[in-house]
Every structure is written in C-alpha cells, then in structure tokens.
Amino acid sequence: MRNAFFLGAGAVALVSASCAPAAQDAKGPAHSASAAAPGGSSPSAPPPAPNGNNPLLAKWAGPYGGVPPFAKVKVEQFKPALEGAMDLERREIAAIVDNPAAPTFANTIAALEDAGRTFHDVTVIYDIWSSNMNSPEFQAIEREMASKLAAFSDEINQNEKLFKRIEAVYNSPEKAKLTPEQQRLVWRHYTTLVRAGAKLDATAKARASEINQRLATLFTTFSQNVLADEENEALILDKESDLAGLPDSVRSGAAAAAAARGAKGKWAVTNTRSSVEPFLTYSTRDDLREKVWKTFVNRGDGGGAHDNNKIIAEILKLRAERAKLLGYPTHAHWRLDDTMAKTPERATALMEAVWKPAVARVREEVADMLAVANKENKKDKKPAKQKIAPWDYRYYAEKVRKAKYDLDANEVKPYLQLEKLREGMFWVAGELLNFSFTPVSGVEVFHPDVRVWEVKNKQTGKHVGLWYFDPYARPGKRSGAWMNDYRRQERFKGEITTIVSNNSNFVKPKEGEPVLISWDDAKTLFHEFGHALHGLSSDVTYPTVSGTNVARDYVEFPSQLLEHWVETPEVLNRFALHYKTGQPIPQELLAKIQKASTFNTGFAAVEYLSSALIDMKLHLAGSKDIDPDAFERDTLKSLGMPDEIVMRHRTPQFSHIFASDDYSAGYYSYLWSDTLTADAYEAFTEAKGPYDAAVAERLRKNVFATGDTIDPAEAYRAFRGKDAGIGPLMRKRGFADSGAKKTAK
Predict the structure, then answer these.
(1) Is the pLDDT of residue 25 over 70?
(2) Is 513 a catalytic residue?
(3) Phi and psi (nearest 5°) for 299?
C-alpha cells in the first residue's frame, strides 16, 4: 500500500495524552499475492529487485501470514534496504502511470493499494528501531535518510501522471457504481494528494519538496535532542535520607535504574515521566523534588547542543510557508481541513469551553493543598506556606486525596500489578469484542523483553492477529507509551491479518518481583490497548482505510473510551489483586476510588489543555518570527495559566508536534475524542452497564471495525444515534455543565 505524505523517521505513533510522543504507526500491510482487485484486472507489478542477503527486503516469512524478521536485523542494513525499497516502489508506480489503458478503479486505485508493500515492511522495522533501539549508529542513519525519505514521498505525491489517473477515477461517472468503501478510498487518495500539493505548479512543487525535506531533518534532530536529554540526565541518590517518603516499589525501581547506569548500590531518578512522576508524588524532600522537576521540564531547553528552540522556530516558519503554498491561511487550517473539527476555530472553541472551569477547579485544588500544607507546618512549627510550587503539586495533591477521601495512592498501588492488569485488558477485550489472547513462542522479537500473543475470535476460533508487548524502559527507547501497527488488516487480495504492538516505559524490576503501577499508568495501559483493539477489530477490504488509519481527532476515541473499563468492579475484583496476599482490592477501597473519581481533574485538564492551546496558537501565528520560550511564557500568561502548573509537554520537548507533522495543530484531538468518549460511555450506563452486549456490538460494528470506510461523524451517529454534546464530558470531569450545546461532529 502506498502511504502518501510519508515523512520517515520522526513520524509520531499513537500515544495517550498522558504519555510522551513517538515514532509513527506502521504504514500498511505485508505483501500478499492472490486474486485480482475488484472492478477489473490490474497491471502486474514488476518483480522485486534482488535483495542479496538483506533480510529487510525479503517478504515476511513464518507463521501467521508472515512476521517481521527482527532477529536478523543489523543497523547497517537499513540504508540499503530503504534505498532498494524506494527503487522498487518507483518501478511499481511507473507500471501504474505508464499503463496505456484508461484509468479505472482497478488499474489505478487498487493497483496503488498494492504498491509499496516492500517499502512499507522496511519502514515498519526502521520506525521500530527509531523508537525502541535508537543507538548512536542508528541515529547517524536517521540523520542521513530523513531528507531522502521526505524527497521520495514528494516524488510520488507530486507525480503528475499518477495524480491525473487518480483524478480521472475521482471524476468518472463510473465511480457511482463502486462500493461505498471503494468510493471512500478514491476520495481518500485524491484528497491526500491534493493536500500534499499535487495541483501546484512545478516551481511551487519544488519548493514544497524542499520544505518537506528540511522539516524531516529538523524533526529527526528534535527527537534526538529530546532523547539525549532523557538518557543523559539522571539524579543519582546515594543516601538513604534521599529516599524519604518513597514507597518500596519506587525505591526498588530507582535501585534497578541506578544499577543499569553502573551505580549499583545507589538509586537513580531517570529523566523520563515514568520515573519522575512517582518521585514528585511521594518524595518528602522539597529540594530533590525541585531538582528532578526542573531537569524534566527543561528537556530540549538547556541552551546547549541539545537545545530545540531554534529548531522549533524554523519548523514553524517552514510549516507556515508550506500552508500558504497549499492554499491555506495557516498550518493549523491545513492540518484540520480533513478532520472532524474541520477548522481551528471549532477546535479552539471546545478547548476554551473546558479551560475556564478547569482553571477554576485548579484554584480550589490549590486552596485545599495550602490548607493541608499549613496544617502540617503549624504542627511542625514551620512558617506558613504562601504558595504551591509546580514541583509541590503532585506531592500535596496526594495529601489532599488522603485528607478529603481517606484515599492513599500507596494503598492502591500494591493491587495494581502490571501483569494482572494485562490479564484484565485481555478479559475486557473478550467481553466487549470476543477476543482471546494466547502467548506464542517461535516469533522473532526485536528485544528479549518483548512478548507476543496470538489473538483469536473466542467464539469461532478464527485467527485475528498478533499482539506484541514491550513494557520496559531501556537505553535508546523514547519515553512514554504508544501503539504501532506493523501490518494492517485487509482482504482485497486475500485475507491479511493484523499485527500490532503496545510499548511502555515501566522500570524493569528485579527478577521475580512484580511491576506495581499507578492508577494513571493503569489507565494509560488500557488507553494504548484501546488503540491495539481498534487495529485488531478492523474489518475492511483496503489497507489505506483500515484500522487506526482515521482522522486524528477520531483515532483517540476508541482508546480513551477503553480507559473507563479500568475502574469497573468486574476488572478490579478479578485483576486488582494484592501482590503479596493475592487478595482482591477491598470494597471499601473501591468505594473510595469511585468517590474520588473527579479528584485533581483541574490539574489534569489544565496541564493538558495548556499544551493543546499553545500548539494551536503557535500554528495560527502564521509566518511571524517566534521565540518559542517567550511565546510559551506570554501566551500562558494571557490565558491565565495557574503558576502552580506547567504544561504537560513544554514546547522544547513537545515531540507530539515537533517530531513530525502528525499531531501538529492537532493536540486538541484528545479533548475532541474525549467528548465522544464521555458520551459513548453513557450509552453503556444508560443501558445495562459497561458490559452490555448490544451496545458493545454497536460499538464494534460502527466504530472499531470500520476504519476510515465511512465519515467518522456518520460512524459515531450510527453507533449512538445522535451527535455527542459537551455535557457528558463536563459531567465526567466534574466541571460545571456550561457549554452543553456544543457538539463534536
């Protein structure tokens, strides 16, 4: 399958709002030869170029329709493999455009779906190495190949003969005779190429390509700078007193992290979210919390070799220029043109509707924190605390949680074992989507920590796909959590099944010890699994419209929806088991969790929305000269950003929007999708509850299975029977229901 507008390394994967961003989702299915495409015969693809001993250019072999040859990969193979795959796709495209027959769906659109399969397979593995195994040797190849991959993408996206054939099919009266999915596919290919500049004149095309190549290089440098600051910075603790307040699970993880850095017998707080946030939550050492926090929020902003501010300024300039070339007022207008929101104004209106009540809630949260802090200070005969510093927020929030709800996160964490929650995810997938998961061996993996499961329909026993799980942090792996699809489901040339992965960054424990995770991490785990289930549920014909390949502000809907099932009694009673006693989480503790369900929602919303609003405003600024630090500071001040909170992703480390184009001017998508999520979950609660079979089947049929074969607004209405209003979102977060007439459609 041809992936229009591919930008190579630095493309961003499916990630949750609580996670750091990533290398992008896989680009299509593995090659499958078989019957001709519907609607007539297609030209024969040219034979593959000889691949010598390079396993990256070979068709995926082995069980389950073929699997990636991870065990055979060597870093030095990537450059020749990418170059060979590009040459092969050039010949495949030439066979389409040089076909003397008049353009038809079969000899143009279907043939395009069948092109680029080798290139897809190579780039899947390339992106996996970029995200998970990013060694200095690999980084050198990334830097060299970034602009070449962007140029190759433009070479095809701007191919005038190819576009003319696609345009002819798009405008043909015969299009009306195609199936709805085929018509959607024609529209998708046509629209994608137009948005990539297919209608520009030769001079404008050349400039657009220059911009894309330069952006690809900048994206790669930005990503490598953030990774360097995450890998190179760590706080080493060498005294027991430095661990004051830390629970055993955090201490154990810090000891393992230190040992991995050659500091056995000490403890390390690494510069990643999964290490930093627990420390900020529990450490009683104000001085160390401040140090850890400042190191973390200043990634990419240190003023040295890894500073990203000049890179950001250039990216913004180039995006603004490209948008003008393509006929849009700003990059934000270009990015949102084919989304559910359609315009930056609609996306901004939704964010602003939530921003004010979220800030108001933060004021309440801070007042509660100061009351608790000063009660303690008075008892200890310390001076009154006048303000809550950003590195204090999580620490005092936990104290408020304990005081207001008699709920201690440390009391919950022993029940949240990573492996048990993984089992819980599988159980939920079985209840909602009829999936079963069985561990398999004999499938190659890219690291010993990775495990693989076969997914089947538990009613029919039919093979559905494979799920890879890579849970632990390591050198060369970017922070955060994400989902990749290695191969998308399709059936237009035979049944092709899905291969997906979920990747996290938990600190690997000592042998025999469980990984205990936070409540937020549990929700993130389910979130990313929701992306995987979206890919595994796909039931379409063509790979371009398969699985998670949907609008950016719709793709987060299935994943955010699945987060709700973490807190269902059915999951907690079965799978929230104490790591020592094996006893289920007590009912009184469950009641406390439920009572505190909207606790700290002000912090979570403001932390996220500040990032989303900065993203949108940066990209609405057009071609203005921007100093990223100053813009961030001044914009947050104008928004009334509470001093006690920092953006979830500060601009110099905001990889969602500067490691690729994928989430640029699109970080709002999580809120847009959550508007759908809150409304959709009410469909279950209005029926027989979270496991209502009839509602689950409507969800599977109209959302999880349809991919991009239908407009997402139509797909949602088919599931829900109406558009989603903002009311359920405000109720979910415990905010005033002020903007209830606004809809996401």
Answers:
(1) no
(2) no
(3) -55, 135
